[in-house]
Amino acid sequence: MWQRFSENARKVVFYAQEEAQRSGDGYVSTEHLLLGLLREPHSSAGQVLLDFGYSGKDIRRRVEEHMSKGKVSSTSEMNLTPRAKRVIDLAYAEARELNQNYIGSEHLLLGLIREGEGLAGLVLVRLGLELESVREAVRARPPGAGRPAAATDEERLRMLGEHAETLLTDRAKGQVLEHMLRVRRNLSPVDQVCAVLLSEDGQPASQLLKSLNVNPQHVLILVERALLQPPTLESLPDIVPPVSALMAASLKIAQSLGQEPTAAHFLLAVIGEGSSHTAKTVMDFGITYERALTVASEQA
User: Fold this and answer.
1) What's the pTM?
2) Full domain range(s) for residue 82
3) Residue 17 phi, psi dihedral angles, 5° rounding
4) Same domain for 232 and 279
5) CATH number, residue 17
6) Which of 2, 26, 72, 161 would disulfide-bridge 247, Cβ 3.0–4.6 Å?
7) Cβ(293)–Cβ(197) under 8 Å?
8) What does the pLDDT look like over 36-72, one tens digit per residue?
9) How far apart are alpha carbons 165 and 2 in whole angstroms?
10) Residue 97: band (very low, low, confident or very high) from pLDDT cuts 50, 70, 90
11) pLDDT of residue 37
12) Domain count, the chain
């Protein structure tokens, strides 16, 4: 079900985690989902709330009046409470009832109101937001208003960054575009680029892993397996830096080694940053960034 979330809906869940940590809670409940939703004022849900005359600031104040304040939580385990899970299920049901094949912020708003017994639902109902009225407001919005538009090839190339021409072969660039168009999953573009690079046998990225006594195909299989799995709560949206940032970092790595930049340096940047599935998979083989950098420095 997570793979059907729009970009805005994923951000709402991510922001909900931040709100839970900020309030000292080790879980994500309905009030955190509502606070996360309020941080996307230009989303469909945000616009619907404005149509009813409610600002995010006013709703936030009302929610926070009923929330206990604890120390900021440092835990990374942010599970949904049963009520929050029910909100997600109800958002899915609302999307189906509206004949929409994605789950957007507007469906999360409907789910919060429909659940009704959590703090978020109570606040929204007390504001006078009735389920059928909000549902009609959502219906009145243009179809797909909450759905992210498909990126063009030009936009995908721009997302890769200005250094893609230097670091990727023409074949790799073409495959990356095809991969992003075909896969359409929730993991970061970084992992999708790495999946393509590791499939290029004999090219710099796969050669670097071989020099580290790691079979690139084994890494590729594990990364592709991760791409096939539904994302966890922690990966919505993904926290891995953009491809373009890692492309730029890889040029600096190449310069520090006195080498011409290649995809191997991009892989080094990915490992050094450490938060992508590719980086974690490589590190599971016992490879540290320092060791990979040492091996790369010894290569011509």
Assistant:
1) 0.50
2) 2-140
3) -60, -45
4) yes
5) 1.10.1780.10
6) 161
7) no
8) 888 777 778 877 877 777 777 778 878 887 776 554 4
9) 33
10) confident
11) 83
12) 2
